[in-house]
Amino acid sequence: MVIGFGIHARAQEATSSSDTGFQDLFNGQNLSGWKGDERFWSVQDGAIVGQTSKENPAPHNTFLSYEGGEFGNFELRLKYKVEGFNSGVQYRSVQLDDFKVKGLQADFEATWHDGGVDKFSGMFFEEDGRMFMGQRGDVVIVKTSPKGTKKPNVEKIGSVGDPKDLVKVIKRDDWNEYTVIANGFTFTHIINGTVMSMGFDEDQNNRRESGIIAFQLHSGTPMKIQVKDIRIREL
C-alpha cells in the first residue's frame, strides 16, 4: 500500500530547494580534504573518480572519506555516474583502519544483477552493521535490536512507490542528482527529484547522531564511479 510518506518526503525536498547555506566538500581540482587508497582514487575532468579493475582489484570494500569533520543533521547533494557494480555514499559513518568505513549508506549502482537489473539504488542500508534496512520504495521504522547483534529489527510501514517504477528515473549514461536528508533520526534518499526510500531509526543501540561522509568502491566486479558537485548544509 502506498501511503502519504512520499508526499511528506517531497515536501521536505521542496522546503530545501534553495542553494542558501551550502558548503562545497570537493574543490573540483584535487583530493584535498579527502583520504583514500591512492591506487583507486583520482580527479579527472572536475570529478572524483574511483575505479577498480582485474589488474587492480580492491582487497575489500574501500572508501574515500571526507576529512573536514562530522555531520549530524544535514542535506547532502551530489551528482554521480556509476559503471559495472555497486557503490554508495556513506553518512553518519565511522572511519576504520585500511580505508574501511562503517555506517549508513545511500546506495547507487549499475545494472549488474542478472537480467540487467538495478536492485539497490536508493535503498536504506548500513555498511558493516545492520545492512539491509529498507529497499527502494520502502518506508521503514528500524527498532532497537538486542545488544551484540547486527541483524536489524525492521517494520515496513509504507511505500513511496513501486521499485520498478522508481528506478526508471535513474540515468545510465548521464549524471544523476542524489540528495540525502538526515534530520534527527529520519533519513530520506532522493534521486533525480524522486524519493527512493525513507527510514526512521529508533534503534538506540546502533544508531549514531553524527559521522563522516565517504564514497564506496565495492570489492569484486571491476567498477568505476564518478562524483562531482558535492555540497552539504547543516540543518
CATH class: Mainly Beta
The CATH H-level superfamily is: Exo-inulinase, domain 1
In terms of DSSP E residues, the strand content is over 45%
What's the overall average pLDDT, rounded?
92
Q: Helix count?
A: 2
Query: Could you spell the SSE succession in H and E letters?
Result: HEEEEEEEEEEEEHEEEEE
Estimated structural class: mainly beta
Domain count: 1
Reported CATH architecture: Sandwich
- List the uncertain runs: 1-16
Which fold name fills CATH's third level, the topology? Jelly Rolls
Largest sheet: 10 strands, mixed
Provide a descriptive summary of the structure in words:
The structure is a single chain. The protein is mainly beta. It has one domain (5-234): Sandwich (Jelly Rolls), CATH 2.60.120. It contains two helices and 17 strands. The strands form two sheets. Strands 1, 3, 4, 6, 11, 12, 13, 14, 15 and 17 form a ten-stranded mixed β-sheet that branches. A hairpin with a 3-residue loop joins strand 9 and strand 10. The longest helix has 11 residues, at 5-15. The model is unreliable at 1-16 (pLDDT under 50).
